[in-house]
Amino acid sequence: MKKEDYQALQEMLKEFREEAAELQARIEKYEERVKEAELYLKAIQDSEPEDRKVFSPRRVEVLYKEEIGRIKEQKALHEEQIRQLCGERDVIGRRISRLETVCRHQRDRARSRRDASLMDLEKIIGRIESSSGYIDRNPVQARQELAIIAKSLRELVDRMREGEKP
């Protein structure tokens, strides 16, 4: 994967996280409204004194019927909004999870390629050190070793450019 593609994935991941945070804030806002509606309904029901409840032919539900109906309707709308937003948040959460997996896999692959390249370089360094002993004793063999080392270095550089695992 190219570095630009990886950066684009990271940017998408950031945007999804921001969107998830916005959805969570909206969910919390609607949950607060539901709690307020429940408290208001409870306040209406508890507003009538106990002695009046026993002796009055009218009940609170009848006196405040329209108000209670309106509040229950608003509460139901808020609860529906919460369900819808939670669904959207879950979808975004799954996308975030997939993107994190792809990014983590890409980082692991890059680390593995880097580690393999370092091991190859260490082998080449070892060959250079061993071939330096041939320079004085056998110059022809030293040239052959240096040619092999140069070829190995070119292959390593090509693999690193292509982004393939060495």
Explained architecture:
The protein has 166 residues and is an all-alpha fold. 90% of the residues lie in helices and 0% in strands. The chain has helices at 3-46, 50-55, 60-63, 65-132, 134-137, 139-162. It is built from six helices and no strands.
Strand content: under 5%
Mean pLDDT score: 84
* Rg, alpha carbons: 35 Å
Structural class by secondary-structure content: mainly alpha
Unreliable sequence segments: none
Helix content: over 70%
Q: Largest sheet, described in full?
A: none
Q: Provide a count of the helices.
A: 6
Number of DSSP-assigned strands? 0
Short description:
The chain has helices at residues 3-46, 50-55, 60-63, 65-132, 134-137, 139-162. The chain has 166 residues and is mainly α.
